[in-house]
Amino acid sequence: MTEAVMFPALWMPIVLSAVIVMVGSTVVWMVFKYENTEWKTIPGEDQLREAVKKLNLPAPGQYLFPHMMGSADPQTAMKKWEEGPNGVLLMLAPQKFSMGSRLTQAFIYYLVVSFFTGYVASHALPRGADYLRVFQVVGPTAFMAYGFGIFSEAIWFGRTWKSACKTAFSALIYGCLTAGTFGWLWPH
User: Fold this and answer.
1) What digits encode the pLDDT tens for the residues 105-147?
2) I need a surface site. Which of 25, 28, 29, 96 has the fewest CB within 10 A?
3) 158 lies in which domain range?
4) CA distances from 99 to 24, 30, 104, 150, 181 (A)
5) How many domains does the chain have?
6) What radius of gyration do the chain's Cα atoms show?
7) Residue 62 domain-assigned (yes or no)
């Protein structure tokens, strides 16, 4: 009978994989920049900001236009949808921009993904599992956590498939970094 891995034995690969994914994410965004190209500048940005400001929308909030859910007149809503423009508007609360708080939130996210990935691995793999076997379990688990949700945005909210695929590619990198870390530090 193989000895199970007690979950607390995975604290090191959980924390270190989150740190390594944080570094990997920084490299993806600051060096390779392939995801950055999906964020376009709006011509007439100041006019758009003024128009949105006049609407006095509560922020933070997310808005869909034309709004079709629960429409009193579905046919009119469908006609608006066909005519366009259609979109999703995410409103952020006015605030001083803080890269530090966003980086902290990102690190917590990476830590949570590594935590749950470690949880799955601790139940799927025995103590002393070899590197490749750990990689085969942890990699797809982390990849799914980092990448699969983005496709829902492409299906329902208009994110381009190109953008979703680029994000999923980054998720694959993060999944491999997580898997490599767990494989390296798997308890023996």
Assistant:
1) 999 999 999 999 999 999 999 999 999 999 999 999 999 999 9
2) 96
3) 7-40+96-185
4) 17, 14, 9, 23, 26
5) 1
6) 21
7) no
